[in-house]
Amino acid sequence: MRLARTLSALVLAALAPAAFAQACPHRGELDDLYCDADKDLLADPPTDPKKFKNPSTLVFTYTPIEDPAVYQNIFKDFLEKFQACTQKKVVYYQVQSNAAQIEAMRAGRLHIAGFSTGGTGYAVNLAGAIPFVVKGDATGPRSYHIALIVKADSPFQKPADLKGKKVAHVSPSSNSGNLAPRALFPSVGLVPDQDYKPLYSGKHDQSIQGVAGGDYDAAAVADDVLARMGKRGVVKAEGFRKLYVSPPFITSSFAYAHDLEPALAAKIRECFTAYKFTAEMTKEFNGDDRFWAVDYKKDWAVVRQVAEATGTPFNRAAFDREAAKEAEAKKKGK
User: Fold this and answer.
1) What is the dihedral sign for C-alpha 40, 42, 48, 49?
2) Is the pLDDT confidence value at 132 over 70?
3) Taking the CB of the first residue and of the last residue of the chain, which one, N or C, has fewer CB atoms within 10 A?
4) Is 236 helix (H, G, I), strand (E, B) or coil?
5) Where are the beta strands (DSSP E) in the chain?
6) 222 has which bridge partners?
């Protein structure tokens, strides 16, 4: 609840004046702080050059789908190369939730971030994030699947067997951990909020470890996270079964703030696409060895469709509503 109030307070404190609202010919789902005159679904850069930002220090973070400290180390070589390429000091900012990432970019404290698939939509609309690359290999951008997992020795054989059981979701903004399961599970006989009450774990790794430890009977997670945790030895992959696997979704994005000076934004794109992953990064990211350019309007179309289908479009009202539900559930210890 506190997070929802904080975001609302930021909105009220930073709302553009009425003159700006009148001057914006099209906004779509973007927050009132932003305009989308070219209708590419992304926040336009400031029309006043004085509002462009060219900070001496760039702040970077990666989506907290797992332990943030792990990724700070994995991105160490990249950040060193990125610092040399941009000729800017670069610092890694650890965040504990997707909501914290969005709040930080919206407030101007975060310049570049890796956002989860679902979190990308909220970051675009609430924080003016501009997704520009995703991880991938020689064949193209990485995708992943939503998996409904249970312990290998559990009695559950199909999704419908989980009615009335403890099923973990990740967080309100998570595509694979909440939005897509709500849209897809009913077709296989399991309806969230009707057949079970989703229990928010906060992160994919916490959902997976919760199933392993018996805290949850099942969990909806991104299968690539499960694969990475198995490779690192955090869990035993053979200790789980998948009762359902979805069609593919695009993986997490990397985005920069919409108000960065254009030359700096162009340099950031150049530095990302020129970088070749270290062996450690390639191992951690399931064979990915490079960044691929993406188009938010096209590549996130199915993700937006899932959000719309579940009644949770990527706007402030939906975000605050779902964040409040999550905070209330945690308060009650559910």
Assistant:
1) negative
2) yes
3) C
4) coil
5) 57-62, 89-92, 112-115, 129-137, 140-141, 143-144, 146-151, 167-169, 199-200, 218-222, 240-245, 249-250, 253-257, 290-293
6) 146
What pLDDT, on a 0 to 100 scale, did the predictor assign at position 17? Answer: 41
- Spatial contact of 179 and 118, defined as CB atoms under 8 Å apart: yes
Residue span(s) of the chain under CATH 3.40.190.10 come to: 2-141+251-299, 144-249
Hey, what CATH topology would domain 144-249 get?
A: D-Maltodextrin-Binding Protein; domain 2 (3.40.190)
Q: Name the amino acid, one letter, at 175.
A: N
From the list 129, 106, 108, 107, the residue with the least C-alpha distance to 116 is: 129
Nearest to 88 by CA among 60, 54, 58: 58
Helix (H, G, I), strand (E, B) or coil at 220: strand
Residues 321, 301, 320, CA angle at the centre, nearest 5°?
10
C-beta of residue 291 within 8 angstroms of C-beta of residue 272: yes
Start-to-end C-alpha separation, the chain: 15
Q: What confidence score (pLDDT) does residue 325 get?
A: 67
- Residue 67: pLDDT above 80? no
Question: pTM (2 decimals)?
Answer: 0.76
Torsion angle, alpha carbons of 143, 147, 112, 104, to 10? 160
19: Cβ contacts below 8 Å, ≥ 6 apart: none
- Which token pair is 62? 């990666």
Could you please state the CATH topology (level 3) that the domain comprising 2-141+251-299 is classified under.
Answer: D-Maltodextrin-Binding Protein; domain 2 (3.40.190)
CB atoms < 10 A from the CB of 94, how many? 13
Nearest to 212 by CA among 184, 191, 176, 237: 237
